[in-house]
Design goal:
CATH topology of the largest domain: Rossmann fold
Strand content: 5-15%
Largest sheet: 8 strands, mixed
Strand order of the largest sheet: 8-9-11-10-12-13-16-17
Distance between the termini: 33 Å
Domain HTH luxR-type: 211-268
Shape: globular
Number of strands: 17
Helix content: 40-55%
InterPro entries: AB_hydrolase (IPR050471), AB_hydrolase_fold (IPR029058), Sig_transdc_resp-reg_C-effctor (IPR016032), Tscrpt_reg_LuxR_C (IPR000792), WH-like_DNA-bd_sf (IPR036388)
Protein name: Helix-turn-helix transcriptional regulator
Number of domains: 4
Organism: Sulfitobacter porphyrae
Oligomer: single chain
């Protein structure tokens, strides 16, 4: 849209407009700096104050809240937040749970009541409505064994640890529980329970092969059993029949002279030298991305760029298969549901997943380097490292912007674009105002007040560390029943939670990188990138009717503006469409993965 097409009603806000900003909103930023759990209240207060300013702003050159007085408020709030992050006292039980990020862990008091649990336990063991060990979703005999072990720890001063295996009621998979007695500062005894916390040490496979004569396939099946994979899950992940997996397990028991799967797992654990749940990230495993239930471990690959900066990436699916470049959005959703990753492997797809600058082990870019340029360059260097000349791009959410940029600047590298729950350039204030408040808060921040966005992103990151990712998903996506159904699926939640660790975890917060990419996408009109691709390669957009960032009215405007795009709309799906409809997505992209394509 050019200068002459701007509505006459759009004016630049006066100093009086800016000064009229509700002082309560500024006070809320101070409150959030002290207690980020108040973030949602801030958003409501901020929206009441900012809506009129946005309506009166020049959409094409917005400049809101940049005066010295307001900036001073934010600088002081930022300093407060930094101090809170450094000095905030940590609850002792929370500290005990903190090492267990990707295994189920919870704490019991002497009355056998659950006092606290991490997100993983809440999902995998359905703890949200459970207060007692007796209500855990385990076989009744195993619950009695677990209770006996717990009571023994509380009653016997000579024992402070125990380990036993249990079987959930919802399947055949084995869960290994490690129990640890500890005392709070006021002397109260507590027991920590951690499940599935077994890692597979380097060299264990070769040891098992030498000692028992296991085949590589049997070793892989045993590894899945130790990590609590059910026979059905193992069969799906390996692309084999259930009968084949049962036969391999029988062979394992014969070679190891064990009489049951439980005994087989216990024997393997004893060989591993497991005396407790190992630390989740030791130095030797820093470059491994680990799931905590059904996802297989994946090693990060690394490319060192000409300027010396390090860029990491993952390979999902078949590491020698037909390439797909996958752009994982600002949340860093680098993992797919286990069945989706297995299906990609079965279809012979090699999914290349770059970690954007400042995420995980990828080095950040300097302040004077354009973030978009760096991200595009990183993706191309990774394709070079994988010896990929041309491939389709699969993107989720706003990463359609980066997909268009790659296609515009490197047209010979892109075969097709498949964008899920994605957006086109926003061309009116109304398109921002239609968003759900959480999306609107960040996206209008990037558009109208980019200088304040780093503080907003930092506050959101710190809040998430406090409330957990599951609660964040409820806040941001809870208005869409399709999204709720998605993240309440344990397999999907594992992909969302563990994948986003590269962006946000207790030890990492990429809020600076998040703010920079938000600004790069929303500050300027990027319609020229879309126009550069028109008619030159296939572009498919897959959106849901319940998308809270791009609701149907905005989607209709996009369809009218860009009718050449292949629009595919899914009833009842929201922002987590990809994690629900991944089969449809793989069906859409598969024709463009081979040498012969439409």
């Amino acid at each position: 849209m050019d200068e002459t097409s701007r509505p006459d009603s759009i004016i630049t806000p006066t100093q009086q407009d800016t000064a009229s900003l509700n002082e309560g909103a500024i006070e809320w930023f101070y409150d959030v700096a002290i207690d980020p759990l108040r973030m949602e209240t801030l958003i409501d207060e901020w929206e009441r104050s900012m809506a009129q300013l946005r309506n009166n702003a020049d959409f094409f050159a917005p400049d809101l809240l940049s005066d010295r007085k307001i900036m001073g408020h934010f600088e002081r709030a930022k300093s407060i937040l930094a101090k809170v992050e450094r000095d905030s006292p940590v609850d002792q039980i929370e500290l005990v749970l903190s090492p267990f990020k990707s295994v189920s862990a919870f704490v019991l008091d002497a009355g056998l009541k659950i006092q606290a649990a991490n997100d993983t336990a809440t999902v995998d063991l359905a703890l949200e409505n459970i207060n007692s060990v007796r209500d855990l979703p385990l076989e009744s005999a195993d619950i009695e064994s677990l209770l006996r072990s717990i009571r023994r720890l509380f009653e016997n001063d000579r024992e402070d640890t125990a380990i036993l295996s249990c079987r959930p009621t919802h399947g055949q998979q084995i869960m290994v529980f490690r129990l640890q007695l500890f005392h709070t500062l006021d002397g109260q005894p507590m027991v920590l329970l951690a499940a599935n916390g077994i890692t597979w040490p380097n060299g264990l496979s070769s040891t098992l092969t030498k000692v028992f004569g296991l085949t590589p396939a049997e070793t892989d099946v045993l590894r899945s059993l130790v990590r609590s994979g059910s026979i059905n899950d193992i069969a799906i992940a390996r692309g084999r029949s259930v009968d084949t997996i049962r036969g391999q397990i029988k062979s394992l028991m014969a070679k190891t002279e064990t009489r049951s799967q439980v005994e087989l797992v216990r024997l393997t654990m004893s060989i591993m030298g497991v005396s407790g749940v190992p630390a989740e990230h030791d130095e030797a495993s820093q470059n491994i991305h680990r799931g905590y239930a059904t996802l297989e471990d994946r090693a990060f690959q690394t490319v060192v760029l000409p300027d010396g900066r390090r860029v990491d990436y993952l390979l999902l699916g078949d590491p020698k298969g037909r390439p797909i470049l996958y752009l994982s959005a600002g949340l860093g959703l680098i993992r797919w549901p286990a069945r989706a990753e297995a299906e990609a492997a079965n279809r012979g797809m090699r999914v290349i997943v770059p970690l954007r600058p400042g995420y995980g082990g990828s080095d950040p870019v300097a302040d004077d380097v354009d973030y978009t340029t760096a991200l595009v360059s990183d993706a191309v260097h990774i394709l070079d490292a994988e010896k990929v000349e041309m491939c389709p791009i699969l993107s989720i959410a706003d990463d359609s912007f980066f997909a268009f940029e790659i296609a515009r600047t490197h047209p010979k590298r892109v075969r097709a674009m498949i964008a899920t729950v994605s957006s086109l350039p926003m061309t009116s204030t109304k398109q921002f105002e239609r968003m759900h408040k959480w999306h609107r808060f960040m996206y209008t921040g990037a558009k109208y007040t980019p200088h304040l966005l780093p503080f907003m992103a930092r506050s959101a990151s710190y809040m998430t560390q406090k409330i957990g990712k599951r609660r964040l998903l409820q806040l941001v996506f809870g208005q869409c029943s399709g999204d709720v159904a998605a993240f309440e699926n344990a397999e999907v939640f594992e992909a969302l939670s563990s994948g986003s660790e590269v962006m946000m975890s207790e030890s990492r917060a990429a809020h600076t990188a998040v703010a920079r990419q938000f600004v790069s996408r929303k500050k300027d009109d990027w319609s020229s990138s879309v126009d550069a691709v028109r008619g030159k390669l296939p572009v498919i957009f897959m959106n849901g009717t319940e998308d809270q960032q791009v609701p149907m009215e905005t989607l209709a405007e996009f369809q009218t503006a860009q009718p050449w795009i292949d629009w595919r709309i899914f009833e009842g799906s929201g922002n987590l469409l990809f994690f629900q409809r991944w089969r449809d997505v793989l069906d859409a992209i598969e024709p463009y993965t081979g040498n012969d394509f439409p």
